[in-house]
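Amino acid chain:
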Amino acid sequence: MTRLSQVFFVLLLLFAVGTADAQWRCLYATYDDNADGNAVGAQAASVGVIKDNTFIVLVSASTNCFMLPYVNADSATGRKYGYGYDPSDVYQVWTDGGFDQVIMGGAWKIKAMPDSLIYVANNDADHNILVFKFTGDTITTVAVKSTGVFPREQTGTTALNGIDVDANGYVYVCVDSTKGGTKDIMVYKPISQWTVSHTDAPACTVDLPDGEYQGIAVSPDGKMIFVTDYTHRKVLKYKGTPATGYTADTGFNFALSAGDTLSSGLTGGPVGAGYLSPNNILAVACARLFTLGAGYSYSRIYMVNPNNGNLISPDTTVNYINTALWNFVNTGSYQSRSGGTVPGNASGYTSTYDVKWEATTKNLYTQSYYGWTVDKWQHTGTLPTITLTGVEEIGGTLPAGYALQQNYPNPFNPSTTIEFTLPASGFTSLKVYDLLGREVMTLVNEQKAAGTYRATFTATQLPSGTYFYALKTGSFSDVRKMMLVK
């Protein structure tokens, strides 16, 4: 491509960015200027959002590991304090105010909550979950009022990567590598139940297939866990509760394609994830980890349907953000930003490793590890709300035989209910197909106990037409027809 062609291409993209009716836009990227009082000042590994424009950034590099708070932030303002530009040997310390101290080191992800608590997946010798609080001026440690315990929890000998917290206060962490391990996801009770020993057992654990798991996201009710498998370039989903445990949802399938390949032939993978409720959208941040130069040309955030792993819409202005392309269009390069400040809404040096939602505004926050920034994104249209599909057991007497009932309502738009009965336990699948016999959704694909069940099928993204749903369990199978009318 000639230089003239490149300029024309950039202008064309700028025109598209400026004229699209609804799209994702970066509203600001914090300045990266060593003379500026708003700079992160070093590698930004993770971001935790307390409320819109109030967030915590985790700086995690070989000789630094600390957090910085921003309040009423934009590109030029908001940072409450800093430790200089590219500081050396700066560490944050968790303490109970006495002799119990843990130095932050190798931390990779944080989770900030609306109550200003900050949970850190730390990688000291005991791989503690550390809990801090932002007071409005500084980040400190505080005791749980009901117990007097300063919360931290030792998780074992394996390094932690992802961390999330559900609406009930349960804390979820995933380890960085699952080879040979069995406690790859650990779910801990709320901090009000942590003891002064700091060695409480998890409420439950999950054994993951071997892989490198970089991030974790949980639905607010704790019934869905999503983990990013960087090695195999996919996201896994598990269903259950902290009380009953979790099983793999094999009907969920999100995997990167050949299009997620750098021009150099290198590939990226899912790194971070965040769940937005009540829209029920899973944001998945994908990048090529720790790769300078060519790595800056690939970072994307996909908006994923938590039911099945599909993108939330066929509309590309809704279903993903190409953060690398945004930087290229706005700076003319994948690895530049004039003075670290111009423009004010592009970070440069794209390395998007984390993604968090602000639930009230539905704005999205990311970071640039090598751009040393926090970036705020907004969709200028209306994000869809995904109806969760699921299967619930209906109480009553044990059914006498197998049965697949006609869906209701029928015709439907966009959701319908399907009931089926199982007189005996067994592996059960309930799948939906189009007229050509192509599978369009898996509603059930797991071991089920005897009972009567109700499944919800939502066809928001499917065209009007005739569909079939098929139940298979043991030697029994049945198929019924339904009609989607939009």
Remarks:
- The two ends are 45 Å apart (CA to CA).
- The chain has three helices and 36 strands.
